[in-house]
Each structure stands twice: as structure tokens, then as C-alpha cells.
Amino acid sequence: ATPVPVEVAYPTREDIFATYRATSTIASDADAPVLARVGGEVVDLLVEEGDFVTQGQALARLDGERLRLEMLAVKAELEQLRKELARYADLAERGLVSKAMFEGLKYDAAALEATYKLKKLNYEYSTIRAPIAGIVSSRDIKLGQNVVASATAFRVTDNSKLVAYLQIPQGEFVKFSAGHTATVEVDSAPGESFYAT
Q1: Cα gap 44→119, rounded to integer Å
Q2: What would the pLDDT profile of 142-190 be if each residue is shown by its tens digit?
Q3: What is the phi/psi pair of residue 52, to 5°?
Q4: Are 60 and 46 in contact (CB under 8 A)?
Q5: What are 150-154's contacts with CB under 8 Å, separation 24+?
């Protein structure tokens, strides 16, 4: 029989690591399309792709002149109706006008105030704003373009926290728990490793 070489060593205590390799797509957990809430012509582009924006920051402006004039017309009507209501309030207290007529006037004023708030809101929507903070990952509108309501104008991506979804076989799943560390390698940075949890 051929002798088998052996090596004798003292036992040592070490950590045992189990590794699992998988391929996945890395994506942002916060990626929001920015929709135009009203239609109109794009008159001003304030950001470009790659710019960092804060939540609520103006990204573009649409031609809101028609919306502004509609808002001002309703505001003028509302102010006139409020003055009329104040005048009739004194008369209603003295019983010189019917209660039904005065209540109808109050209802008209409340309805006109709601219409004014809606017109004001539509005018404010002529400025397209970022719903979240992040990087402008795409701009889908051009200067002079006529956009319709609900059209996607921009896409804002918050890439401060990225997520990779792994499809782990059921037999391997018992080896994983929350808090385990992971090493991520990406094709765009060969030879560089990123740590994840």
C-alpha cells in the first residue's frame, strides 16, 4: 500500500462563513414619475437630467395665464359676494330679509369660495414640482411642447438607498436572516466591492 502523507495540526476556533452568490438588478427604493397636473405649453425648464432636486422644488413652468385669469375672475366674484353677504347679514339680523334668501346667499358664497380654491390650485399646478428629493433621472418634456394633464414630465429618483431583490431557493433560505452583510459587485465598477446589509 502506498503511504498517504498526513499533516498534524492543533485545533483552532474560527468563524465559519457560508456564502451565496446571485445575480440581481439594483434599483432605487424611491423612484417617482412627476406628472403634469394641468395641461399647457412648457414655457420654462428649470432643471435637467442629473440635477439634484429637493421635495417641492419647481422643475418646470407651464403657460398658466388662462388659469390665472380664471382664478382672478372667480376671486373678484367672491369678494363682491362677500360684501353683499356682509350687507345682508345686518338686514337679516333686523328681520328685513327672509332667512331662506340669506341662507341661500351664504351657500352661494361657500360654493364660490370652493370654486376659487380649485382655480387657485389649478393655477399653482402650472408649476411642475418634485414630489420627492433626488436626482432628475429623466426629462420627458421640451420647451414649447404642449403637455396634457397626467402626462409624465420628469422622473425623480432618490438613489441614497438602493435595493437588490434576490431570488433565494427555499432550501437556502434558512441560512439568511435580517442584518447579515453582503458584498455587491457591479459591472460598471469592475474590481470594486460595495458593502450592503
Answers
A1: 21
A2: 999 999 999 999 999 998 888 888 888 888 888 888 888 888 888 888 8
A3: -85, 135
A4: yes
A5: 150/35, 150/36, 150/37, 151/35, 151/36, 151/39, 152/33, 152/34, 152/35, 152/36, 153/34, 153/35, 153/36, 153/59, 153/60, 153/128, 154/33, 154/34, 154/47, 154/59, 154/60, 154/128, 154/130
pTM: 0.70
Residue 107, C-alpha cell as written in the block: 351657500
Query: Among 81, 147, 65, which residue's Cα sits nearest to residue 116?
Result: 81
Q: Above pLDDT 70, what percent of the chain?
A: 100
Q: How far apart (Å, rounded) are the C-alpha atoms in residues 39 and 153?
A: 11
Residue with cell 352661494: 108
pLDDT digits (tens, 9 = 90+) for 59-91: 999 999 999 999 999 999 999 998 888 887 877
